[in-house]
Amino acid sequence: MPGERTKYAWRREILATRAAVGPAEHAREASALAATAALLAGADEVVCAYVPTKTEPGDLRMLDALRERGATVLLPVTGAPGPLSWAHYAGADSLRPARYGLLEPTTESLPPPVVAEAATILVPALAVDRRGVRLGRGAGYYDRTLGVASVGARLIAVVRDIELVVELPEEPHDHRMGWALTPEAGLSELGDPRA
């Protein structure tokens, strides 16, 4: 059963599979994600998102598509373990290298509670299951942050299609997602995140 594998085993397998994705496939998937992301928010909505790393699905086109729709895009700023701070995304030129190989905005840092203003939160994930259980990298930043999100916010895990699985291991501190965003299937509703 998939749920019997440990989080460590899941992470190792998914990271190896992602590392084998070629540039052409990654670009194709990123283009598809950007096209769907453009439909996720309207003008004047706040979207908390992130800058995908080279092996994560998606790229800056996803963020640019949201901005072109008039959304305010906030990106995480990592600090000490705890809830994430955020900053406005003002285009590719507003990003700088940060810890963990990430890119972060050079704009003013906003405190963690600003996540409560977001109508949509795009969450990086290694995998997500049909119940909404998300597998992250294990640092816990998002699990600490999502507790501050608005109850009505759409929590969307961004994964490759093969990373939407039947069942993942779950721990009490894990926050469930309401949707998965994948290149092929687009936006898929998951099980009740409060169940």
UniProtKB/TrEMBL annotation:
Question: What is one process in the GO biological process aspect for this record?
Answer: tetrahydrofolate interconversion
Name the family the entry cites: Belongs to the 5-formyltetrahydrofolate cyclo-ligase family.
Q: What is this protein called?
A: 5-formyltetrahydrofolate cyclo-ligase
Under the heading PANTHER family, the entry gives: 5-FORMYLTETRAHYDROFOLATE CYCLO-LIGASE, ATPASE INHIBITOR/5-FORMYLTETRAHYDROFOLATE CYCLO-LIGASE
Q: Which reaction is recorded as catalysed by this protein?
A: (6S)-5-formyl-5,6,7,8-tetrahydrofolate + ATP = (6R)-5,10-methenyltetrahydrofolate + ADP + phosphate
High-level lineage: Bacteria, Bacillati, Actinomycetota, Actinomycetes, Mycobacteriales
Record the organism: Nocardia coubleae
Does this UniProt record's set of keywords contain Metal-binding? Answer: yes
Residues bound to ATP: K7, Y8, A9, W10, R11, R134, L135, G136, R137, G138, A139, G140, Y141, Y142
Cofactor(s) recorded in Swiss-Prot or TrEMBL: Mg(2+)
Q: Which UniProt keywords apply?
A: ATP-binding, Ligase, Magnesium, Metal-binding, Nucleotide-binding
Which superkingdom?
A: Bacteria
EC id? 6.3.3.2
Q: Which residues bind substrate?
A: V51, E56
